[in-house]
Amino acid sequence: MANSNYRHLLSALVQNVPGVLAHISGMLASRGFNIDSLAVGETEDPKLSRMTFVVVGDDSVLEQVRKQLEKIVTVVRVLDISSNDFVERDLLLVKISAPAGGVRTEVRELVDIFRGKVVDVGPDEIMIEISGREGKVQAFIERVRPYGIRELVRTGRIAMVRSDSEQGITASSSAEAVKA
Q1: Is the model more confident about 68 or about 3?
Q2: Is the pLDDT of residue 166 over 70?
Q3: Cβ-contact 139, 86 below 8 angstroms
Q4: Does the pLDDT value for residue 180 go beyond 60?
Q5: What PANTHER family is this protein classified in (predicted)?
Q6: Which CATH number, 3.40.50.150, 3.30.70.1150, 3.30.300.30, 3.40.50.720, labels domain 87-158?
Q7: What average pLDDT score do residues 22-39 get?
Q8: How far is residue 41's CA from residue 44's CA, in Å, rounded to a whole number?
Q9: What are 68-124's pLDDT values in tens digits?
Q10: From CA 13, how far away is CA 53, in angstroms rounded?
Q11: Contact 10, 59 (CB under 8 A)
């Protein structure tokens, strides 16, 4: 029996032309599909953009979304990333109430623990950048909430399928190949 709450991570390679995002999101909305997360950006080819989005539902929902996307002329290719071994990231920018002194030190310790970065400092607040898997980002938000979140913004999920293990290329081996 399929899990109706499964989160499908889809990647659509689309032509980089005006109106594509509106067309795709409108099509999904008109058919009652909810987009849980969405990120869009240009690819290595400036003529193409990649839309990475999360759709919640069972396998039949996934199949319907794929079929509908593939009908759109500006869609080049649709992949279900969640069926592969992949790397995913979310990005968070958050302003925290942190006056100079002990509170600011505590918040900075949390930033270090979560491998984040302080990107701006004001007299009574600091802005922090955190990236990572959704669970890490959410855990950081919960840890800093008691200090007072003044403003928060998150990206949609981005993801990439890992290199084929049969090729034997990993981040470290490709870096070694570059040095050679």
Answers
A1: 68
A2: no
A3: no
A4: no
A5: ACETOLACTATE SYNTHASE SMALL SUBUNIT, ACETOLACTATE SYNTHASE SMALL SUBUNIT 1, CHLOROPLASTIC
A6: 3.30.70.1150
A7: 88
A8: 10
A9: 899 999 999 999 998 899 999 999 999 999 998 999 999 999 999 999 999 999 999
A10: 12
A11: no
- In this prediction, residue 4 carries a pLDDT of 61
Where in the chain do CATH 3.30.70.1150 domains reside? 87-158
What's the CA gap between 125 and 134, in Å, rounded? Answer: 24
Q: How far is CA 131 from CA 6, 33, 40, 157, 164, in A?
A: 23, 27, 17, 10, 25
Nearest to 11 by CA among 39, 67, 53: 53
Global pTM value: 0.77
* CATH 3.30.70.260 domain range(s) in the chain: 7-84
Q: Please give the torsion angle defined by the CA atoms of residues 41, 44, 48 and 9, in that order, rounded to the nearest 10 degrees.
A: -50
Give 128's contacts (C-beta < 8 A, 6+ positions apart).
Answer: 92, 93, 94, 95, 96, 107, 111, 116, 117, 118, 119, 144
pLDDT confidence tier of residue 56, bands split at 50, 70 and 90: confident
Report the CATH superfamily, name and number, of domain 7-84.
ACT domain (3.30.70.260)
